[in-house]
Amino acid sequence: MKSFYSPFPLSALSLTLACVALAASAAHAQTADPAAQVQRVLASPVFKSAAATLDKEHGRIVEEAIKLTEIPAPPFAEKERAEEFARMLKAVGLSDVQIDPEGNVLGLRKGTRSDGKVVVVSAHLDTVFPAGTDVKVKRQGTKLYAPGIGDDSTSLAVLLGFVRAMKAAGVNTRDDILFVGTVGEEGPGDLRGVRYLFTKGAYKDKIKSFFSVESGDINRVTHGGVGSKRYRITFNGPGGHSYSAFGAVNPMFAQAQAAAEFSRIQVPATPKTTYSIGLIGGGTSVNSIPVSSWMEVDMRSESVDELKRVEDRLLKIVQDAADGENFARSTKDAKITVEAKLIGDRPAGSTDMNAEIVQIAKTAIEAAGYKPNFNWSSTDSNMPMNLGIPALTIGRGDIGKSGRSHSLDEWTDVEKGPMVKAMTTSLSIVLTATGME
Asked: Which pTM was predicted?
């Protein structure tokens, strides 16, 4: 058996190895610094080439935004737009493009050193507008007007622009990037698309971080997800003639008492917590005691605990109101009963301000000459934030270049210079976070 010979004494060899390890550790620490990472990406010829492609393809991105906007995508009816977006993702060269069982569109761009997980970059397919809404885009100079043009149809086109720019420039990233068009982000959709993505979809245990690209200004960074609970409260009773059955329990009286008590709940200013009764209804005629009455209630908070406190208080108030009406009036024909049906549940959460993903966004936005505006809102990012997965919702438009969101005269300004600058900034955030090489 041959003996091992080293030209260095073992102590010297150990010292050499330790120095190599130390140098590698120092290099890693340097590259792990968010500011250094952003500056490296911005200085890269490859990134500059990608930015030039965004500039060159500005007109195409605008036309794709118009095309997608003019495909109606009302709540729970995003299928036609999803199919077109899937076709577009295939055309830009993404692999494994699919529409999942919930209706989300997924397309994968492979990284070079994947750890088996993905970074999601998303925009939502749905709008708040019901079927039959006129979604034809109208131009006035550089402004485009149409329901949904800003929130969030143009972001879908921007995602396509990102993929083409990365391909044209030969961008390689460490991480796999999953581009997603989600369903159900708006109102009644209750985050059903992103909820499925994280809890049931093929990538549910494979998402390491998440970006939602939204209609807001490029300097707006949503790092906190406002949670919400929504209930439809229905009071039921025997009904009767307003004169001959006078004295019988009345669901409307119970509801009025509940509404009055609910309006007096004290909530903190910080964490911001709110509540409202948005819709009421019931009854059959002015001279009838209603058989039923109902109200729809919205509660929101930056805090999971505070939201639960208001929710619990609501549920107690409505039951107490039913019991109070049964005590105050005749229950000979029937008692008042109350049903509290949960119709909306958006989880609260946040991404720590010191998290790498936040610091990357901050540095990139500042490097472009903007002042970051950190905020809380209710977006697709709520879901990953609640699960403890780093997530942000970022803008893709220049400051003040969109308005009237959720209205029939919604607009976005696609002036080339400001729009390209904002898109380039968003792309720098994504490429830094996914480890552009």
From this structure: 0.89
CB atoms within 10 A of CB 260: 11
Provide DSSP, 28-96. HHHHHSHHHHHHHHHH-HHHHHHHHHHHHTHHHHHHHHHHHHTS---TT--HHHHHHHHHHHHHTT-EE
Summarize the chain as % helix, strand, coil (round to 5).
40, 25, 35
Q: What is the pLDDT of residues 300-327, one digit of tens each?
A: 999 999 999 999 999 999 999 999 999 9
Determine which helix (DSSP H) or strand (DSSP E) holds 330, and give its type and residue range: none
φ, ψ of residue 237 in degrees (nearest 5)? -155, -175
Whether the Cβ atoms of residue 180 and residue 368 lie closer than 8 Å to each other: no
Gap between the Cα atoms of 123 and 61, Å rounded: 15
Q: Give tens-digit pLDDT for 157-215.
A: 999 999 999 999 999 999 999 999 999 999 899 999 999 999 999 999 999 999 999 98
At residue 240, the 3 state secondary structure works out as strand
Tell me the C-alpha distance between 247 and 331, whole Å.
9
Rg of the Cα trace of the chain?
A: 27
Q: For residue 374, give the nearest of 353, 390, 356, 389 by alpha carbon.
A: 353
Distance CA 124, CA 222 (A): 15
List own/partner pairs for 28-34 with CB under 8 A and 24 or more apart. Answer: 32/356, 34/356, 34/359, 34/360, 34/362, 34/363, 34/432
| Phi, psi (rounded to 5 degrees) for 53 | -65, -40
Residue 414 token pair? 């696609």
3-state secondary structure of 373: strand
Block residue for tokens 């308005």: 403
Closest CA to 53 of 158, 175, 143: 158
- Backbone dihedral angles phi then psi of residue 343, each to the nearest 5 degrees: -115, 0
Which helix or strand (DSSP H or E) is residue 270 part of? none
CA distance 149 to 65: 7
CB-based burial label for 433 (10 Å; 0-12, 13-18, 19+): buried
Q: Which amino acid is at 54?
A: L
**Identity at 435, one-letter amino acid code:** G
Q: In angstroms, rounded to a whole number, what is the distance separating the alpha carbons of residues 351 and 382?
A: 10
Q: What is the DSSP letter of 153?
A: I
